[in-house]
Amino acid sequence: MNERTLRKRLNRMTVVVIAVSIMIIAGGSVVSFHLRGILQNALTRQMESNTEQYKINIQRQTEGDLQTLNTLACFLQFGKMDTNAFMRGLLASKQYTEFDRMGYFDTSGRGINVTVDSMIEDELSLEDMDENVQAVVKDAWCGENGISKIYHPRGTEKNVFAYAVPVYSGEEIAGALVAGVGAETFEELLQDRTILKGQGYIHLISDNGTILVRSEDGVVEEKTENIYEGDYIAPQEQERIRKAMAAGEACASEFTYRDMTYQILLEPLEINGWYLFSVQMAQSVNSSIYQFMTSMRSLTVAVLLALLLFIFYGYRQIYRSNHRLIRSAWYDPVTGACNIARFEQDASEVIEGTQEYSLIAMNVRQFKFFNEIFGSRKGDQLLCRIKEAIESHIKDGEYFCRSTDDLFYILLRDTDRKVIRGRLEEMTAEISGYVVNNNGSYQIMLYCGGVIGTDVKDEEPSVQKSMTHVKFALNTARQSLKKSIWFYDTRLHEDEILENYVESHMATALEREEFHMYLQPKVDLGTGKVCGAEALVRWIPEDGKMIYPGQFIPVFESNGFCAELDMYMVEKVCAQIRSWIDQGKKPLPLSVNQSKLLFYEADYIDKLKALLEKYRVPASLITLEILEGLAMENIEELNERIARLTRMGFRISMDDFGSGYSSLNTLASLKINELKIDREFLLRLQNPKEDYRRQLIIMNKVVELTKDLQIQTVVEGVETEEDEGLVREMGCVQGQGYYYSRPVSAEKFSEIYV
Ligand code: C2E
Ligand code: CA
Ligand code: CA
């Protein structure tokens, strides 16, 4: 599982958790909503029944009052009584009723009034009365019992209303009996706490919302005149209430005052458009259920929160541990770049889907030496520097990794060589800017191999194949000192084919004796005579096309076959010397190249001994050429080996001196007999860029040193007369090169020189 998959999984988990939480919340809300609805219904029904009680009580009272008035109207037979008797009767009746005042108006509008304090006023005119009284009186004249709207009698603040009933004289309506009652009579009824049990209150209002009789228990502290005042009731609810009241219908609603919601019920009284405005404190009814619901809600939220917290914690733990795992599985611990496993995965997605890519391998020249000279901490720093440089130059959809040691792979999406070269040069320039030592004299050099998707004709492109190609190009770049970026192309492709051929055919080639010994003469610079030869291997397969050591020795060195081949060559050398001796010729000393692998083999010396015995040749005729690189490992062990070989009689030569990191130290500490100065030295002298004089001084000193150490010097690559003059002047002992002869077959060599 990589980081992307992990993140995907964790995201999926989060979505599931969120979905479950939403479902719980939604389910809870539905249940809560449902419960609320049930509660509200119960509440409304309770309010309706309570309000109905009040309505009945009020209706009962008004009906009772009207009945009383009607009874009085029957008794007070107006017209049959004289005015004084009527007035006395009226006065007497007043004392037995709860009416504040009573009066009588005949149909012509003349009237008599009896007040609370039993004052009698006569000679009244209906026109002098309040218009509300006039209205009910006129209704009574038409034979109807009536209740007036609430009004203030002149000169008072008191709320009053009037009853009026018709008074008959025989069949005819003679007038109307009127009774005035204080609105507080309703107040007493509305204040009846036995019904609402203190859980609500009731106002008497008119159908335009004006409060006619106010309950003492209102929650709204401001003494509003109208229920719509102060906007406690939401506008749309107001609208609904107005509509219901206009139609004379009951209406349930709610209002919010000081963050509390109250249920209201408007119940028509069917008197004058009066309504009972009943308010219930919602929370107080079924308060235990409300409390239960609230606690349930809080509990659910708390549980959900705890769950989320728990999941979040788990998520973090999983993420962290997986992140750590992924880092160790997919990232390089030194630089933090991706590792090869991760890179292969990313790169395969690109390579297997398109040809629009280029794969680059980047390497540092002499990184091993860098580590040895500056220490591994500096080495690691350099690797980090490389990682940063690459990272800052790659684009979206491009990848890179550090594979092993100083090997970096980069997958670019460019296919144009120029563009790729440009980008790589930018990267390498940035890396080369890294100052390693104080004076900045150490120049970091990089080399790259590249393969472009459109250049390869693999039938089934794969990362593995691309990597094989790119490694080949990288190896070519490593060997080339002049060009640091090599692209895999047809020629390299052929080389790669050859390399594959070499690897797969080496064993059979050895059996079939396809490896031949060629000899190149070594010339004594003093006498000009051939004084020996170097054995150089040539592979001549069945088709006769010669393969040169440069094409297979590096392969054999890396696959280990070199040891076998070298021993085969030693045997050829022994056989040659034996053959010369047997032919009665004076044998020439022969040099043979020995690879590092062979040199350290446990039974190496025994094998040599066996060969010397088999061919009965003196070891003194054989020079073993070893590479200076051997001394890098363990100089003491090497010296010990050299000493044993020297005791056996072999001569030891150090090959290719001056081509790599040659050091005078190793030269001084190794007990060798011969030093072969690499062809590179003569080439450098010819190069106008190189400082000729300095090179010469150094080499002169080296040659001088070898004389003191009794080491013979052989210069390789003598190609011209000038070359020879130069090396002779330096005091070198022997020369080897095309100037004298190219390597030739052993037969030819024997013919010419022995
Ligand atoms: P080397 O040991 O340095 O051998 C000298 C190489 O320089 C030979 O190349 C030779 O042909 C070439 N050479 C000699 N004189 C001149 C000259 O004047 N000009 C130029 N340009 N080149 C000259 P060759 O035979 O191709 O061998 C290449 C390398 O392969 C050898 O370099 C040696 O390291 C390796 N090699 C050859 N034979 C064997 C072998 O039997 N065993 C091992 N381990 N390595 C071998
Ligand atoms: Ca050699
Ligand atoms: Ca050499």
Describe the structure.
The protein contains 24 helices and 25 strands. 50% of the residues lie in helices and 20% in strands. The strands form four sheets. It has an eight-stranded mixed barrel with strand order 17-18-19-20-21-22-23-24, surrounded by six helices. Strands 3-2-1-6-5-4 form a six-stranded antiparallel β-sheet, sandwiched between helices. The chain is rod-shaped and about 190 Å long. The longest helix has 73 residues, at 3-75. Strand 7 (200-205) and strand 8 form a beta hairpin. The chain has 754 residues and is an alpha+beta fold. It folds into five domains: 3-58 and 289-329; 80-185, PAS domain (Beta-Lactamase, 2-Layer Sandwich); 192-218 and 234-286, Beta-Lactamase (2-Layer Sandwich), CATH 3.30.450.20; 340-488, Reverse transcriptase/Diguanylate cyclase domain (Alpha-Beta Plaits, 2-Layer Sandwich), CATH 3.30.70; 500-753, EAL domain (TIM Barrel), CATH 3.20.20.450. The relative contact order is 0.05. The mean pLDDT is 87. One calcium ion binds next to strand 21. Residues 655-656, 676, 678, 716 line the site of one calcium ion.
